[in-house]
Request: fold
Amino acid sequence: MSYSTFNRKKFDSLQEPMFFGENVNVARYDQQKHPIFEKLIEKQLSFFWRPEEVDLSNDRKDFLKLEEHEQHIFLSNLKYQTLLDSVQGRSPNVALLPIVSLPELETWIETWSFSETIHSRSYTHIIRNIVNDPTKVFDDIIVNEEIAKRAVSVSKYYDDLIELVNLYNTLGLGTHHVPERGEVVVTMKTLKKALYLTVASVNVLEAIRFYVSFACSFAFAERTLMEGNAKIIKLIARDEALHLNGTQHMMNLMMSGRDDPEMAVIAQECQQDVINIFVEAAQQERDWAQYLFKDGSMIGLNAQILGQYVEYITNVRMQAIGLEPQFPTKNNPIPWINAWLVSDNVQVAPQEAEISSYLVGQIDNDLDGADFDDFDL
Amino acid sequence: MTTLISDTEHQDRTVHRVLLGKKQVLVTEDEPLLPQLERSGILVEYQCREGYCSACTIKLLWGKVDYPIEPLAWVNSGYVLACCAIVKSDIEIALL
Reply:
């Protein structure tokens, strides 16, 4: 079955599963099978922000004053985040759009990916503002071994799914011979399994992988250093929490079987794989913390505390999708981070983009004649 | 036991007990559970405080809560989203 950009069949999209049903035809949002995705789109749109809104001139001065090992921590985190958002800015579109079957979910995927491209643009904004030669920073992302290790883990499930879907769309179900890969079995089950593991791996990316960098950025800001950067990271963290909500809903809907009964069976079979994805990511993030602090710690944060935070947050995220926590850490070792992660606690004018509840173009229709009483012509 | 407290400034306010391990906190229906727990010194994880990040999820062992606005986060049965849940009876909770 090949992909069609406008499916000519007449069908009731409310009866379709989230994925692997009919290709979406009419982009309509008057009716939704899963209204949550429509609500997420609305929320994400209300969060819109631009990196250039945040002034980074003081960050440049701060950065020059940082110790060398602190500059290493700061730049390495930015490089890692750049990698993560490079993947997230394109992969949901490339991997999920050819197989999605609900208009509201299709648009959520596009909205989600778009917001990740804003994050990528904000890293360029930050790097351009604090170093003289951004090329050095960006070029290292490809050659840095510590980052490369993570690049494999964050992209492999996407790549597997994309390969299977490509075969499915050109050759259909069956066993296909692929040059340099040998026999590849494409069944609905292998496709759905690849999809489930991809969503799980994205969930981990957004739920855990970003948070080591977030913690470091906020630890600098606690010392009133790199505050413009922290403001941007706050906006990114707010978006990521929403994206995380999206993948948690996809996983919970799949697990419940409410959307596609076969998916519930696959979720059950893959439970251990998903636990392994979480545990592997937590281990990699702890290793990353070791790499960050290899030449020295920073005030309020070291590799051990950061490692405990990774374990703690992994437990929280696992429980959100009904899995047993895997680590002994029960309490948040850096509770101050929550005050930074709240997006609405900054006192700013409502027309500034940071207030998520502020919607552009709101009109008050509740008027009567008395409202014009003090008008003179 | 849920009780009515007469408040000189406001109307009568319903007060419920929240049990957490050996601690007991009295809460009203005027605001969500999270800020009331925080004021009594109980630290609950939080992030967005408006119902989408699910960081403040805690276990609801028994009792009734209500959401004036349905939160965006997925809430499994037996759990409660502290930032937007209004307590509607005596309840017992457990942190994750």
